[in-house]
Amino acid sequence: MAVTKMPQSASNPQKSQNPVSSEDFSLEALRRGDPLEFARLVDAYSGMIYRLAKRILQNPQDAEDILQETFIKAYNALPRFDGRSRLSTWLYRIATNEALMLLRKKRPPTVSVDSPGGNDADDDGLPLQIVDWCCLPESELMSEEARRHLERSIEALPETLKTVFVLRELEGLSVRETAQVLEISEAAVKTRLHRARLALREALTVYFKERLPQVS
Amino acid sequence: MSPSESCHHLLDSLSAYVDGELSEALCRELERHLADCEDCRVVIDTLKKTIELYRETIAEPEVPADVRARLFQRLKLEDYLD
Ligand SMILES: [Zn+2]
User: Fold this and answer.
1) Which residue of A54, A74, A79, B46 lies most exposed, with the fewest beta carbons within 10 A?
2) CB-hemisphere CA count at 13 Å for B29?
3) 10 Å Cβ neighbour count for A14?
4) What architecture (CATH level 2) is domain A8-106?
5) Positions in chain A short of pLDDT 70
6) CB B50 to CB A201 under 8 A?
7) Where are the domains of chain A?
8) Mapping DSSP to helix (H, G, I), strand (E, B) and coil, where does residue A131 land?
């Protein structure tokens, strides 16, 4: 019963998420600990939780631990789940909190305290690099090296921007659901996503401007 | 060089513009500005391209089979592994 099994080659992650919705589960069965229903739930949401944890913690072993902890917590808390939020939202919130807690334990907050994403009102993150690299050939834009640079740039985003970016852009959650998972306002989701995008644009510009034909 | 002060407040709305969520009035204001401002045009074009690139190239894997097996074991769901 591999509900979430997707072709490994799926190139568009937007298409490979949430193959089932919360409505497909019997809350009543989940609350009384029905193992078959719980196994379905695990298969439906473990992909998303694993990817999210891996992005936040940058380590497959930690991601696996978070995956396990999330479902153990969920199993124990299900009898008290009030059903006011969607099951998926509730699960992602448990996973995000677990992952961020582990991250803070492993990496004291000295790194992210001054991050521009920490304050939604400040004016950091303005574009500094004004170079038009859109004209580069596809082979350059889509090269394996460029993709790796993009991956590293996503990893380097401050944690507050990265969580929004991953939920909203890579996993395809709505603004509203992202806000509910992270317990922040929808305006904050939009601001942080905008900053994340600008930061990635900046990083790609630094990378691609070296690859533009030199004109003197 | 970096964009002038007059560009800054428009830059905040670029994501909304790209996502098609900007009000009509702000949209017109932005487009008027873009017509005269090469720098902002470059920022918006490269921003759009950035979004296109991560949507096209960042594909993330499903849970590896061994990770899934250990998860089911930990949850005492071995009987439901497949
Ligand atoms: Zn401008």
Assistant:
1) A79
2) 12
3) 11
4) Orthogonal Bundle (1.10)
5) 1-23, 108-127, 215-216
6) yes
7) 8-106, 116-209
8) coil
B74, closest residue in chain A (CA to CA):
A68
Q: How far is the CA of B38 from the centre of ligand 1 (A)?
A: 7
User: pTM of the full predicted structure?
Assistant: 0.84
The answer to whether B6 contacts chain A (CB < 8 Å) is no
CATH number for domain A116-209, candidates 3.40.50.970, 1.10.10.10, 3.40.50.10330, 1.10.1040.10: 1.10.10.10
What is the distance between the terminal CA atoms of chain A, rounded to a whole angstrom? 61
B17: tokens are 């513009």
User: Are B56 and A35 in contact (CB < 8 Å)?
Assistant: no
Q: Is B31 on the interface with A (CB under 8 A)?
A: no
| pLDDT the model gives residue A124 | 56
The answer to whether B20 contacts chain A (CB < 8 Å) is no
Domains of chain B, each with CATH number or no CATH: 3-80 (1.10.10)
Nearest CA in chain B to A72: B75
